[in-house]
Design brief:
This protein has ten helices and six strands. It is of the alpha+beta class. Among the domains are: 76 residues; 66 residues, no CATH class. Helix 2 crosses helix 4, helix 5 packs across helix 7 and helix 7 packs parallel to helix 9.
Length: 341
């Protein structure tokens, strides 16, 4: 009992500090239960999944992007709908991948003139590509290919000394003009390399509206004021100044047909579609034309209270019919004969 066992270690041994991934003697660490994949797999390098500077979200997002097929959606909105992380965290992870060379975002112009963004996922980290000017038409300088020894050369002629003023400048490469684009215009008098601007598409004309027979300024101003107040009923009916000037004669045609402003406002704002209105002025122009009421009848009754109407009854004296006013029971002739007697 007093003798010590020299083979027993004085204390428990720990894994060396220089190799933290080495399995400890007490059974800790990770082990792998691998199965060989034959379909639906992607090869990802350890330089990505074990990157020391990328966050765990960026590493997982990079693996997901490399597993997507070509043409799949990889924008922030699509990824935010796919994963529970918000758009802010996903945007930060995409910036990390782009900073370390695992992601590139390129802008391309389609045949219709629209600019779209394309996301390129790299399985090997590359340096961020330097963007070149979009309208550079001059080809980059290229070194001339070495002349083959089999090519015939011109016999050397007599050398003539040249003065500095006679030296010819080096020939510059010919400039290439890009083909014209159907939706692009280049300012006149500018050279290659200038920024181009997109020409706005011509605005589609509004449908025609009814024209009033009287173009009094007061009537047109009343029609314009009525159109301006339509946005109080529905904010989607906010009209511009040209649209109001185009629709005002149609409203004036309604007003001169004895239609009250309240009735005109109700006809233009009732039963509007629930979908967003792309061209509210075109919708109002269609209603002003399609729902135009007929003109009032000729010789309408004058304004004012209607004439009084008297009841017809028989006279108690002569049994004739007459219109009695109040409680009268005799006609005018019987009343005159009675007063004469």
């Amino acid at each position: 009992m007093g003798n010590q066992n020299p083979s027993a270690p004085p204390r428990a041994q720990s894994a060396p500090a220089d190799n933290p991934t080495r399995t400890r003697r007490h059974g800790g660490g990770i082990t792998h239960d691998n199965t060989r994949h034959t379909t639906r797999f992607v090869v990802i390098g350890n330089h990505l999944v074990q990157h020391k500077e990328l966050s765990l979200l960026a590493i997982g997002l990079g693996c997901h992007l490399q597993s997507l097929p070509t043409g799949a959606g990889a924008d922030i909105k699509t990824l935010a709908a796919r994963f529970p992380e918000g758009s802010t965290r996903i945007a930060a992870a995409l910036r990390e991948l782009e900073a370390h060379g695992y992601l590139r975002r390129e802008r391309h112009r389609t045949t219709t003139g629209r600019i779209v963004s394309r996301t390129v996922s790299c399985n090997q980290p590359t340096a961020p590509a330097r963007r070149e000017p979009a309208n550079t038409a001059v080809c980059p300088d290229r070194r001339p290919a070495p002349r083959s020894s089999t090519e015939p050369t011109a016999p050397p002629g007599p050398l003539r000394p040249t003065r500095p003023s006679e030296e010819q400048p080096p020939a510059s490469p010919p400039e290439q003009t890009p083909p014209p684009h159907p939706h692009r215009t280049t300012p006149a008098g500018t050279g290659t390399g200038t920024r181009t601007r997109l020409t706005p598409r011509p605005r589609k004309a509004l449908p025609a509206v009814p024209q009033p027979s009287c173009t009094a300024p007061a009537l047109l101003q009343q029609a314009a004021d009525l159109l301006t107040t339509l946005r109080r009923r529905d904010p989607r009916l906010l009209l511009s100044t040209p649209d109001t000037a185009h629709l005002a004669p149609g409203v004036a045609a309604w007003l001169e047909r004895d239609v009250t402003p309240t009735a005109v406002r109700h006809a233009l704002t009732s039963d509007l579609p629930d979908a967003p209105l792309r061209r509210p002025a075109a919708l109002l122009a269609h209603r002003l034309t399609a729902q135009l009421p007929p003109p009032p009848p000729f010789g309408a009754a004058p304004a004012g209270p209607p004439p009084p109407r008297y009841a017809v009854r028989n006279c108690d004296g002569c049994d004739r019919g007459f219109r009695a006013v109040g409680a009268e029971d005799r006609c005018r002739g019987c009343r005159a004969a009675g007063s004469a007697v």
